[in-house]
Design brief:
Elements lengths: L22 E3 L5 E3 L3 H42 L3 H19 L5 H21 L2 E4 L11 E9 L6 E6 L1 E4 L2 E4 L1 E8 L3
Helix pairs in contact: 2-3
Length: 187
C-alpha cells in the first residue's frame, strides 16, 4: 500500500483541483470521464443515419406493397369473370351440339334445351347468381320494378304477376324483376 505524497504547492498546478467539465467523480471515488462533444456528435450522427436508413427501407417496402396490391387488383379485375366463363362453356357446347344435329325431332330438341337450361341454372348457382321471382310477395322497390298496377281484392302492394325475372349476384340486384303490383279496388 502506498501513501500518496502530500500535494506540494506547484505554481503550475493549484493545490485544490476543481474537476474539469470532462471529468466527474462518481461513487466510491471513481473518476468518470464524460464523452467529448465530438463523440456525442458522432454517436448522434450514427443514430440519425441508422434511423434514416430504416425509414428509407420502410418507405421502399410500403411502396412495394402498394405496387403489388395495385397489380393484384388489376389481375382481379381482368380475370373476375374467369370462373363464370368456365361454367358457361358447357352450356355453349350443348347449344352448338343441338344445332349441329341433323334431322332432330322437336321432342329431341326440347329435351336438349331443357338439359342445357339445367346446365345454365347450375352455372348460375355456382357463380352466386340468384333468380328473383317474387310472385305473391310484397312489392320491394329495391328488388322489383313495377310496370303497372291492377285492382285486386287481396292485400294492396303485392306482386301479382312477374313479366321478367330479376337476378341478384351475391345479394346485389343486377336486374330487378319487372312486375305488376296490386292496388286496392276503387283506389
Amino acid at each position: 500500500m502506498q501513501d500518496n505524497p502530500p500535494s506540494s504547492p506547484n505554481p503550475e498546478q493549484p493545490a485544490t483541483e476543481e474537476p474539469s467539465p470532462a471529468v466527474a467523480t462518481g461513487q466510491a471515488g471513481r473518476v468518470e470521464t464524460l464523452p467529448s462533444l465530438e463523440e456525442l456528435l458522432r454517436e448522434s450522427e450514427l443514430k440519425a443515419a441508422e434511423h434514416h436508413d430504416a425509414w428509407l427501407r420502410a418507405k421502399a417496402e410500403t411502396e412495394n406493397l402498394r405496387r403489388r396490391a395495385q397489380e393484384d387488383l388489376a389481375r382481379a379485375h381482368k380475370y373476375a369473370a374467369e370462373k363464370f366463363a368456365a361454367e358457361m362453356l358447357p352450356v355453349k357446347d350443348s347449344l352448338e351440339a343441338a344445332l349441329a344435329t341433323e334431322n332432330a325431332t322437336a321432342e329431341n330438341l326440347r329435351n336438349g334445351v331443357e338439359l342445357t337450361l339445367k346446365q345454365l341454372v347450375a352455372a348460375f348457382e355456382k357463380s352466386g347468381l340468384a333468380e328473383i321471382n317474387p310472385t305473391g310477395e310484397k312489392f320491394d322497390p329495391h328488388r322489383h320494378q313495377a310496370i303497372s298496377t291492377l285492382e285486386d281484392d287481396g292485400e294492396p302492394n303485392r306482386v301479382l304477376n312477374v313479366l321478367q325475372k330479376g337476378y341478384a349476384l351475391s345479394d346485389r340486384v343486377i336486374r330487378p324483376a319487372l312486375v305488376i303490383v296490386s292496388k286496392a279496388r276503387g283506389a
